[in-house]
Amino acid sequence: MEDRPAGIPPEAELASTGGFNKYVGPLYRLPDGEDGALKRFVFAVAGKHMNSAGTVHGGMLMGFADTAMSRTSRLVSGAKSCNTVSLNCDFVGPGKLGDTIEARVRVTRQTRTLVFVSAELVSDGRTLLVATGLWRIAGEA
Amino acid sequence: MSAFPLPGFRETALIDPFEVFVGPVYEQGEPPARRFALLIDERHVNMRGVIHGGMLMSFADAALGQAVWDATDRAPSVTLNMQSQFLKPARAGEIIQVTPELIRRTRSFVFMRGDFKVDGETIFAATSVWKLLGQS
């Protein structure tokens, strides 16, 4: 059992097992909402995630969104891997040290080769970031 | 830390803890025409050995943010929006370089873009909108 940061609920599953995600993580997956249509991920803000203004760095927020949306593309397509083609992020509000930030991810449309995904990062009822992006289904399951 | 393998580059002074954590970033040239470089290492890649999109966007936010500083005499600013296009995978050991381009500066916004290249080939492109703090 890894050292679970404060604010991460017991039902959360570790989603960062290697590479960049493990380095900036831990990142977790939460149980689906809306009968499976809503995929949920979460991480707890630590000192390493911050910028010099005392808010969460935009790179961390975009990286977390990318991980949550990529994972969602894999989950809905059943593919072994999905590659990010494009990602648009609006920084709506600042994240703070100690926040628990949840990614709420939905699939807008899925074709044979593409997944259209949207996500909202929220903390304590506040929206921090909204994102839309396009994923290419790369590997068969 | 091993030396940066391109001559003429020096380490960029990063102040955000997250950028220090995922860096270092290197640079050459003088403001406002600095070129930035990242040597991809094992911390930056995903399970397939390809640089993580989050790392590319973090490098982009850092490099374009440095260019916003250059364009504004280091005025405080925040990223409002970033659009990213992922064109080609890049792998550990490769060096990504970018020379940010100022698209336009207004009283309250800065519009920046960058083509991120490995061996001269663009592998990632980003456009970002920055809000200058204290300006309405």
Explain what this protein looks like in three dimensions:
The complex is a heterodimer of chains A (141) and B (136). Chain A has two helices and seven strands. With 141 residues, chain A is α+β, with helices and mostly antiparallel strands. Chain A has a seven-stranded antiparallel β-sheet with strand order 1-2-3-5-6-7-4, covered by helices on one side. In chain A, a hairpin with a 4-residue loop joins strand 2 and strand 3. Chain A starts with 12 loop residues before the first strand and ends with a strand. In chain B, the strands form two sheets. Chain B has a four-stranded antiparallel β-sheet, with no helix packed on it. The model of chain B has no long low-confidence stretch (mean pLDDT 95). The interface between A and B is large, with 35 and 36 residues.
Entry summary:
The complex is a heterodimer of chains A (141) and B (136). Chain A is an alpha+beta fold and 141 residues long.
List the helices and strands and how they pair.
The complex is a heterodimer of chains A (141) and B (136).
Chain A lengths: L12 E2 L4 H6 L3 E6 L4 E7 L13 H20 L3 E11 L8 E11 L3 E10 L2 E14 L2
Antiparallel strand pairs in A: 1-2, 2-3, 3-5, 4-7, 5-6, 6-7
Chain B lengths: L9 E2 L5 H6 L3 E3 L6 E5 L13 H20 L4 E10 L8 E4 L2 E5 L3 E10 L2 E12 L4
Antiparallel strand pairs in B: 1-2, 2-3, 3-5, 4-8, 6-7, 7-8
